[in-house]
Amino acid sequence: MNKIPKLKILFLLSTLFFLFSWQAADAAQLNFVSQSQEIGIGQEFQVDLMLDTEEEIVNAVEGEIAFPKELLEIKEIRDGDSIINLWIERPSIKSTDRVFFSGIIPTGFSGVLSPYYEGYRPGKIFSFIFISKSEGEGIVDLKDGKVLLHDGLGTPAQLSILPFQIKISREIPLAQAPSVIEDFDPPEEFKPEIVQNPDIFEGKYFLVFATQDKGSGIERYEMQETRNKIQEKNWKEAESPYVLKDQNLKSYIYVKAVDKAGNERIAVVEPRYPLKWYENSLILGIIILGLIILYIIVKILWKKSRNIRKT
Amino acid sequence: MFSFLFYLFLIFRYNDKMLSNNVFLKKICLLVLLIISGLLIIGYNSLADTTQLHIEITSPASVCGNNIKEGSEQCDGSDLGGQSCVSRGFASGTLSCNANCTFNTSACVSGGGGGGSGGGYVAPTVITQVIFTGRAYPKSTVTLLKDAQIAATTVAGADANFQISISGLAGGNYIFSVYSEDKEGRRSSLLTFPISITQGTTTNVSGIFIAPTISVDKSEVKRGDNIVIFGQSVPNSEITISVNSDEEFFNKLIADANGVYLYNFDTSLLEMEQHFTKSKSAYNGEISSFSKAIGFFVGTKNVAAQPIAKCSEKADLNDDCKVNLVDFSIAAYWYKRPLSEAFKKMEQEKLNNDGKVDLVDFSVMAYYWTG
Lengths: 311, 371
Known about the structure:
The complex is a heterodimer of chains A (311) and B (371).
Chain A: H1 3-26, E1 28-34, E2 38-39, E3 44-52, E4 58-66, E5 72-78, E6 86-89, E7 98-109, E8 112-114, E9 117-121, E10 123-132, E11 136-149, E12 159-162, E13 164-168, E14 193-196, E15 205-208, E16 218-226, E17 236-238, E18 242-243, E19 252-259, E20 264-269, H2 281-310
Parallel strand pairs in A: 1-12, 2-13
Antiparallel strand pairs in A: 1-3, 3-10, 4-7, 4-11, 5-10, 6-7, 8-9, 11-13, 14-15, 15-18, 16-17, 16-19, 19-20
Chain B: H1 2-21, H2 23-48, E1 54-59, E2 92-93, E3 96-97, E4 103-104, E5 108-109, E6 129-135, E7 141-146, E8 149-155, E9 161-167, E10 172-181, E11 191-197, E12 202-209, E13 215-216, E14 218-222, E15 226-232, E16 238-244, E17 249-254, E18 260-266, E19 274-283, E20 286-287, E21 294-299, E22 303-304, H3 325-334, H4 341-350, H5 359-367
Parallel strand pairs in B: 6-12, 14-21
Antiparallel strand pairs in B: 1-12, 2-5, 3-4, 6-9, 7-8, 7-10, 10-11, 13-15, 14-22, 15-18, 16-17, 16-19, 19-20, 19-21
Helix pairs in contact in B: 1-2
């Protein structure tokens, strides 16, 4: 007779455990991964923000990372090998204790496949390289995290967030700093596109461009518009979408993607309406120069022939 | 999983005693069994829906520093690949290997003739490529997206098999997607596979099976009349058509030699309400995922379905029949800005209709992405 209450308790507990575990398994997870949670002072260490979709297909993620500014300083943000294809707001180092990010994975994401393992593994959103500043304990947390399902409606996925607890102490010996990424590859090839849309930039022509760098990540884009095909030395930092200066579309447009290791990839957009030969100052200059040279030669020859006639 | 096992253990261990001692427990036990069997069926179905993708590496990565000369390496540590100073054109000396797996000829001695400059460093050619093979529709155009941008297209053979390869990649995580269009211009759903690529390897992704296309001949069908469900897949493949109702109906048929299938579904089995249908294909032991679901209404009259829209009704903000970086840039312009009257209308029709551009609108765009 004593067995029945025990069984009841067992069933109740296992039901609760079962329901809880089933629900937890369904929720996408955003969590922080680092080699150690106990850090010495002045130590550089890496914290990765990982997305585990738990077999859901998702396509958008955003959130705000909050960290104790009195304990930690961000040295670098690495997004080279991110699963995010297009950033709406790229995470960047600011003077606050918050880092906001927002981006999408067009076509959806359910985990990373590889020939080296079975099934799906979580994908990296980006990594922080922190430097510990002073002793203490704190939490690196994600506020207002959102992960949206790939369902055409932007339905929020159930989300669980695991904050990262950190303890900084003088007594902990310094470990090796995260290795510097050796990146010898330029950013991937890309094809900027000239667009016009009545809804933005007062209907002016603008340029859209984006590329990836799987090594160190994209540092910046630079561009120049030139009526001649020859690249100039002056590059100007730019972001997509970029309103073109030459609204007549007669210029060559050069877009340079530079990664964090300094490797460069240049994409060229040919002018939609190339200059007529008489509009091209370079050709005109060459013609004028040619005429001057011809004039000088003719004059010399004429002088010579006059001298010969005199003698 | 552990809770499942724990449950099963409890049920089998104590079932007899419980049933004999307590009617309440008997009911609980039956309920639990029902839940478990239901979940197992759901689990089985979701597994059955998965395309059997195979990913393997056919040429190994060159690992510089493992003392084995591989791939494009000139040498690796002590492994000089049988080369010496003499074979490199010098008179004598000791050839060694640099840390970057190129020859170090600094200890080689030139002959009396002057020796020349010794040549410049030739960077090893490391080819990283991915080869995709699978099935689409006969003679259909297959498009491959790499990180959301069109990377390559190919035309499938008459047997619906296709192969696409791309090279010149760096090592890292890539999100590849493929889709195809059947002979009527119906676009398949996207098949996406995020893959970690290793530098210097050839990765084969095989077993890609693009889901069938699907259409219906009526948007509303009079209850009791037939509705025609049709589309295209692999020639002679077995098509499973699912019609979702309170009860889900499955029907099987074989596609013809062109991969075309057509099924007359008797709607007398269905309630008068909105229903959805989808299809999947099986061939030589491989199974595709389900196609996108297409809706129809069972009512009191027959209404012919609209012809297939060539362009996406959603997310194509510049009406160029593509959802790509341009649309992303237009939406990004309005992100966190008050919308103009013209764009408010656009947001209402083509995005999520909440009067602002935020992450949800970009998620809608990502779903309809074509590259």
